[in-house]
Amino acid sequence: MPCYRLDGLTPVIHPTAYVHPTAVLIGDVIIGPQCYVGPLASLRGDFGRIVLEEGANLQDTCVMHGFPGGDTVIERHGHVGHGAVLHGCRIGADALVGMNAVIMDGAHIAPRCIVGATAFVKAGFECPEQSLVIGAPAQAKRTLSDQEVAWKQRGTAEYQRLAQRCSAALVECPPLSEVEAQRPRMGDCGFRPKGEAQA
């Protein structure tokens, strides 16, 4: 993967984490245990520190960056959807950031919150724990139900399993020129979402 030391600081990836080979890590980046970093994610620790704590995921084309001297952090079991931008902010434990959301400097998304897709979270924003945060500019609209938090947790667990699957079985290969007869689906190849019975 594109991984670059800068000013003597080398990115750190825990052995149980999975970072896609097309993700880019620069400088002061720390990826913790059981994390997943998706294709084309950019983690630029060239000014401040970038941290993914245990079990966090950062999906395709996400960007993490920050100002000099600051930290941009996804806490334990944080979940960041495709295309999100995190700049100098903190995503609390077990929180979810929706696709294409933007979280600005000094913002703190509290634990167990869900930030809606395409939300724009202004610099310095704070919210209570277990809030639904939506809009542009974003606001905490209501308290999430325990069922909504459980839904988020199931999704995060799937990404933790995806990190294991990719570490064990993702192989670069040339494409086929045509669809094979009786082409299996993912569930036929041994993978099933948790809770789905094996045949």
Automatic annotation (TrEMBL):
Alphabetically sorted, this entry's keywords are:
Hydrolase
What would you give as a GO molecular function for this chain, any one? hydrolase activity
Q: InterPro entries recorded for this chain?
A: Hexapep, PaaY, Transf_Hexapept/Carb_Anhydrase, Trimer_LpxA-like_sf
Please state the Enzyme Commission number of this protein: 3.1.2.-
Work out whether the entry's keyword set contains Ligase.
no
Highest taxon in the source lineage: Bacteria
The yes or no answer to whether the keyword DNA-binding is present is no
Record NCBIfam families: PaaY (TIGR02287)
> What name does UniProt use for this protein?
Phenylacetic acid degradation protein PaaY
The gene name on file is: paaY
